[in-house]
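name: query_chain
kind: protein
chains: 1
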Amino acid sequence: AVGLLAALTAAVGFVVADRTAGVETETTTVAVTTTRTVTATNTETTDVGVSAAVLDKRDAMLEAAEANDYDALAELADADEFNYTFGSAVQGGPAQYWRDRAAEGDDPLDSLALILRMPYTLATGHYVWPFAYDKNPDTLTDYERDLLEPLGTSFAGESYLGWRAGIRPDGRWVYFVAGD
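structure:
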């Protein structure tokens, strides 16, 4: 019986191998990518992949900017490495610099509130608002252009020169500058 079972198994294997010889198998894999741009409509918005420290800092910055509280906003900046101008430091620090800019007709706090409600980008290890920071103007979609319209967005060649804010993943706010 064992010999008969072995012979029968060999015969079945031979027939299956003979019938599938020369048959090609094709496998198709389909990948689906979904891109989602989310704008913050209130300070309760949660962004996937962003640490609580970053979200908390953004929310505090937004609150101070909307309250037009220059001093409270300056207190949120990282004391050791915060950049607010490409020029030399201003007597009175960032709060005075922002007041001076506002007196000249370009209120940075208005711009900060606008950009913090926009999508961010992750660039050079920082969460940066707005998302246009690392975009080429030729690659912007109509939707993205509409988002940037309230800023009067400025690009020089391929670089975004408008107001931008950068927060480290640990929640330290390290810059809020415009220009280059």
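note: The beta strands are 121-123, 126-129, 155-156, 159-160, 164-167, 173-177.
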